[in-house]
Amino acid sequence: MGQGAAAAASAQFSIVEPGSTTTARQKPHSDTGRPNCRPGPTPIVSLNATACRQAQQDQQQWMRQLRQTQVHQQQQAEAQRQQARACFSQQVDQLRHTHRQQLQQMQQQLRQSLSLHTQTLSLTTADWLQAVYQQRQAMQTDQQQQLTQFRQSLAHQMQTWLQAMRTTHQVLAQQQREQLQAEVALRQASMESTLQSFQANRQQMATQQQRDLHAFCQNLQVQVQQLQVATLQHLEDLQNQRQVSATQLHEQLTQYTQQLRQQVWGEDHLQIQENGQASGGFSAPPAAAASPADDLSPFSASALSPFSPSEAGSTSAAATTQTEEPEVSVQTLTVATDFSSEDTPIAQVSESEDPILDFVLRFIEELQANDPSMTMLQVIGNRDLVRDLLAKGAGELEVDPSEILAVLRQLVSTASIHA
User: Fold this and answer.
1) Using CA atoms, how far apart are residues 277 and 300, in angstroms rounded to an integer?
2) Cβ(158)–Cβ(10) under 8 Å?
3) Confidence grade of residue 265 (pLDDT, cut at 50, 70, 90)
4) How far apart are the C-alpha atoms of 167 and 25, rounded to whole Å?
5) SS (HEC) of the chain
6) pLDDT tens, position by position, 199-256
7) Is the separation of the CB atoms in 142 and 2 below 8 Å?
8) pTM of the entire structure?
9) Cβ atoms 139, 109 nearer than 8 A
């Protein structure tokens, strides 16, 4: 009976063989749960911040998927361990239940033996004791055999279960190791191809930038040369315009001088000179006008300087200032050139000219009181004001206009020397 119970217990206690593992254990990673690590054809990406960020995001996503896969595998392994523990607990409970049944059978046998003992009261005490002793020895032997068989079966089952678990863990670890190595190799290949493409793009961009810079430098040199040529041409045009303007101003100055002499002295200079010599009050200036070379000498020295190539780098503002200066110098030196060529001595001033000088100074002060910006040279250069001065002086002082002109020549000479 004990051997039958042990056989039933061993038949009920089933161990999961290593070859009979589920599909989930053999393939813990499904195709849907694993990240697709097969590298596709790597396009040539440009070296910019967007590509770097995309690569970092892909690497982070791959790491997250790898962690999720590891967590899923750990959860599956834990579930398998819990299932194995539950199965082992169930088998232990079955063994305990079988042991209880065997104990109950033994107790029943003891009761039967007691009933037999009561039936055999007619036997002697020695025979009864010997029978009881033999029965107890048989029961102990049977129990020892049952316990030995149970222990052997339990040890065999535990060893088989541990071997199966060990084999399963080794297979899973080997699969995980191979998967990780494959994924790492794929990732390294992808990163190497990406870095190579980055390096090629950087070299291409550097070459293109160098070409663009070289072309820009050449274009800039051409523009600078064109600008220099245009500047030289513009300066030559300005010089020609200045020469033409100087010639026109000289002609206008000559015409203005002739008109002023005609207005002041009249048309017949010889008659005015004879009247002056007859009266003995004044000496008329000669009728000969200053030569064009003498009239143009201050203007040529200040404005018509020869053109030099060193002025090619000057700015347009400086050129404009230089073109405007000759007009002021011409206006300033107009009367000075006119009257400095006279033969009458300027340094000698008679006593009769003092009232004329006072009158001229008062006339100029009155004009300056009305217009503070008015200067002596501007007054003498304005023919309308000179005509008014001569007419007013001849009427008030009752002198010849030539005496007033002599004083004006003296003032112009003094102002020109101080200037």
Assistant:
1) 38
2) no
3) low
4) 11
5) CHHHHHHHHHHHCCCCCHHHCCHHHHCCCCCCCCCCCCCCCCCCCCCCHHHHHHHHHHHHHHHHHHHHHHHHHHHHHHHHHHHHHHHHHHHHHHHHHHHHHHHHHHHHHHHHHHHHHHHCCCCCHHHHHHHHHHHHHHHHHHHHHHHHHHHHHHHHHHHHHHHHHHHHHHHHHHHHHHHHHHHHHHHHHHHHHHHHHHHHHHHHHHHHHHHHHHHHHHHHHHHHHHHHHHHHHHHHHHHHHHHHHHHHHHHHHHHHHHHHHHHHHCCCHHHHHHHHHHHCCCCCCCCCCCCHHHHHHHHHHHCCCCCCHHHHHCCHHHHHHHHHHHHHHHHHHHHHHHHCCCCCCCCCCCHHHHHHHHHHHHHHHHHHHHCCCCCHHHHHHCHHHHHHHHHHHHHHHCCCHHHHHHHHHHHHHHHHHHC
6) 999 999 999 999 999 999 999 999 999 999 999 999 999 999 999 988 998 898 888 8
7) yes
8) 0.26
9) yes
Alpha carbons 129 and 135: distance in angstroms, whole number: 10
91 in Cβ contact with 157 (< 8 Å): yes
- Only one residue has tokens 């045009």, namely 237
Does the pLDDT at position 383 exceed 50? yes
Pair 303, 246: CB distance under 8 Å: yes
Quick one: tokens of 353?
């000219």
- 185-214 pLDDT, tens digit each: 999 999 999 999 999 999 999 999 999 999
**Token reading at 93:** 């409970």
> 381 vs 162, which has greater pLDDT?
162
CA distances 146 to 48, 103, 104, 215, 321, Å, are 79, 11, 14, 102, 130
Interacting residues of 344 by C-beta distance below 8 A, sequence separation 6+: 283, 285, 406, 409
Can you give 99-123 as a three-state secondary structure string? Answer: HHHHHHHHHHHHHHHHHHHHHCCCC
Confidence bin at 124 (pLDDT 50/70/90)? low
Q: Do residues 342 and 287 lie in contact, with contact meaning Cβ atoms separated by under 8 Å? A: no
Q: Which amino acid is at 212?
A: D
